[in-house]
Amino acid sequence: MSDLEQRVEAHYTTSELLERILDAVEQGGGDRDALQPADLKPVDEFHTGGLQATTALLDQLTLQPSARVLDIGCGVGGTARLLAERFGVEVTGVDLTADYVHVARRLTELVGLKASFEVASALELPFDDGAFDVATMFHVGMNIEDKATLMQEASRVLAPGGTFALFDVMKLGDGALTFPFPWAESEDFSFVESPETYRQTAAAAGLLPVAERERRQFALDFFAEVFARVEAGGAPALGIHLLMRETAPVKIRNYVDCCEAGLIGPVEMIYRSGATS
Asked: Is residue 145's pLDDT more than 60?
């Protein structure tokens, strides 16, 4: 693991995460001994828009039960569990953060779903060429400087004609960003790039564009609703703030402010592997 990757892992590692999630489920009225996948949705989709954003991207894909799916940067396993539950696919999640992988495995067991999880870097995926039919990636590229290798690895592990669908925060305008953000305490390990950078590196890796959609307004509307609910009823026990330590409020506020200023925003991109068998 590189020095940069060690810093990224340290950023996302929090103490006693599994117990804090289960405690928060109970505080919200859930039963930790009869846990359902839906109980975890407030915390296990650690990206802009949560479940809404995940569903919006997955709805654009064709997923058969026979599909082999890789979730790159799986976090605590929310998207992998949704893929397994909704589509019945064989899904593997990888993440740089060992703590997240441990929690992903345990939560998946507790809700009775099947998915496998491994500690691995998106820049060196431990899988054979063509091992997957679909790869997904939600809010991962902001921590990866080497977008070219990221795209090359995603392309390499896809079977001919396979699909790579991603949802990342990207640079949409010029101006200084205000740190910290959910993905980085400081700019020295934040690598928010323009959609054009993604397009160019994807093309160089042999990935063919299928669809693209900027989701900045979606993000602003989503967070406006979140802020209104918190103002009306207070912060919920269970939420992505559990993954961001005590600086969660300022991280989210900085992100929203920079979105409002048009500097950054989430973007969906879907590619098809151009490799031939």
From this structure: yes
Reported confidence tier of residue 277, pLDDT bands at 50, 70, 90: very low
- Integer CA distances (angstroms), 222 to 49, 214, 261, in order: 6, 14, 16
Placement of tokens 């590692």 in the chain: 13
Domains in the chain: ranges and CATH: 3-273 (3.40.50.150)
Q: Give strand pairing partners of 133.
A: none
Q: How many Å apart are CA 49 and CA 170, to the nearest integer?
A: 15
What is d(CA 264, CA 256) in angstroms, rounded to the nearest whole number? Answer: 9
Q: In this structure, which long-range contacts are made by residues 37-42, counting pairs with CB atoms below 8 Å and at least 24 apart in sequence?
A: 37/81, 37/82, 37/85, 37/111, 37/113, 39/111, 40/78, 40/81, 40/107, 40/111, 40/238, 41/78, 42/236, 42/238, 42/239, 42/240
Could you give the CA distance from residue 231 to residue 40 in angstroms, rounded to a whole number?
22
CB half-sphere exposure, 155, CA atoms < 13 A: 21
Nearest-angstrom CA–CA distance, 219 and 26 = 29
Q: How far apart are CA 184 and CA 142, in angstroms?
A: 9
Give the CA dihedral 58, 59, 65, 67, nearest 10 degrees: -50
Q: Which helix (H) or strand (E) holds 69?
A: strand 68-72
Q: What is the largest CA-CA distance in the chain?
A: 56
Query: Which tens digits make up the pLDDT trace of 218-269?
Result: 999 999 999 999 999 888 999 999 998 788 999 999 999 999 999 999 999 9
Predicted confidence (pLDDT) per residue in 115-126, tens digit: 999 999 999 999
Query: What global pTM score does this model have?
Result: 0.94
